[in-house]
Design a protein that fits this description.
372 residues; alpha/beta; Aspartate Aminotransferase, domain 2; Aspartate Aminotransferase, domain 1; 2 domains; 7-stranded mixed beta sheet; 13 strands; binds pyridoxal-5'-phosphate
Length: 372
């Protein structure tokens, strides 16, 4: 049998080691080191934004985004139910209320047609989350935001290097956020970024990242912040990763297209769409959705693949079905059928940047054997 094929393995084959050695040799390892500024500048420039504020991960980037827009008690934020908990957690921790919409069953992204009916007097922002490498259809949402004077928070963690009608994802939010976890297209081990064009918002984010030290007098505080500072060591890896982003995106598209070609004959599964009017998929992950009535759920399929030395991960479990939120009295009796189906019948297969074409073919053959 072949060796275990992990669901993701990052590729650190560029200047990562050289830049890390530079950190050691110069002694610059903290957030004060020069790679931090360079990474913030390079990353924000790549995404056509004025300001980049690096942080320790993508989850706290969302916490800062919500706080910097003064979202709090009494406010509502519209967001997809099919996403990672970090999105809803940021809103709930701020004392505001997440208001959910279902996902589209073909693109797996938030159903933009459901947003309008969720807008109320209390709505303050729409949190857009691009899912699995394909962007949300942003134009209808941007229009609604303009009409109703709402902020856009754009979570672009899964679309680093993707575009929407040829403009970079991450360039659309009043605040846009990213993660550099090892399965993201740019990784720093752990890490995150906040982008904005507004100098006041940028300043607020910077302050909140750094304990809200007062500029005029250190150790004096008007507000509470956090220590979410990014280190020079992380930034050194980030600078090297960003240099390779175009190549990484091309490779991700190759991986995705190879799977699409290999798997297109299987009738019992739904696989990602190659493209829409506004973007070509970059296949951040390669999802497989079991079709109705053929299989009970994804768990059995994932176990079978594990026995065949193939790693998988389940899809997100939707926010309206999270016990932690039910305990808070949120989302009780709410139902979003597409997301519920996705959670039970979806999983993703190995597609990290280090995967080889042979491994893709082994995974594909195994799926064909299993589902045909
Ligand atoms: C990965 C991810 C995050 C969280 O990032 P961390 O760096 O793991 O905290 C947030 N949102 C989305 C959509 C993600 O995919």
């Amino acid at each position: 049998m072949h060796d275990f094929i992990p669901v993701n393995e990052p590729l650190l084959s560029g200047n990562e080691k050289r830049y890390l050695e530079e950190c050691i040799e110069t002694g610059w390892i903290s957030s004060e080191g020069p790679f931090v500024k360079q990474f913030e500048n390079d990353f924000s420039a790549r995404m056509n934004r004025s300001f980049g504020i690096s942080v320790v991960n993508g989850s706290v980037a969302l916490d800062i985004a919500v706080a910097a827009l003064d979202i709090g008690p009494g406010d509502e934020v519209i967001m997809p139910t099919f996403t990672i908990i970090s999105c809803a957690a940021a809103i709930v921790r701020a004392g505001a209320k997440p208001v959910l919409v279902d996902c589209d069953i073909n693109t797996w992204n938030m159903d933009v047609n459901q947003v309008q009916q969720k807008i109320s007097d209390r709505t303050k922002a729409i949190m857009v989350v691009h899912i699995y490498g394909l962007p949300v259809d942003l134009n209808p949402i941007l229009e609604l935001a303009k009409k109703h004077n709402l902020y856009i928070i754009e979570d672009a963690a899964e679309v680093i290097g993707q575009t929407y009608y040829d403009k970079p994802c991450g360039s659309f939010g009043d605040i846009s956020t990213f993660s550099f976890y090892p399965n993201k297209h740019v990784t720093t081990g752990e890490g995150g970024m906040i982008l904005t064009d507004d100098p006041e918002i940028a300043e607020k984010c910077r302050a909140k990242r750094n304990l809200c030290f007062k500029r005029e007098q250190r150790f004096l505080h008007d507000e509470l912040g956090w220590n979410y500072r990014f280190s020079n060591i992380q930034a050194a890896i980030g600078v090297a990763q960003l240099e390779k982003l175009d190549g990484s995106i091309s490779r991700k598209r190759e991986i995705g297209k190879r799977y699409l070609k290999n798997l297109k004959g299987i009738n019992n599964i739904q696989i990602p769409v190659l493209e829409t009017d506004y973007a070509e998929n970059i296949f951040w992950v390669f999802g497989v959705l079991l079709k109705d009535d053929k299989f009970e759920d994804a768990k059995a399929a994932m176990q079978t693949l594990k026995n065949k030395n193939i790693g998988t991960r389940p899809f997100f479990w939707p926010m309206h079905e999270q016990p932690v939120f039910h305990k808070m009295g949120l989302f009780q009796n709410e139902s979003y059928p597409n997301s519920e189906k996705m959670a039970r019948q979806g999983f993703y297969i190995p597609s990290g940047l280090a995967i080889t074409n042979d491994q893709i073919d082994i995974v594909s053959d195994t799926l064909i054997e299993l589902f045909s």
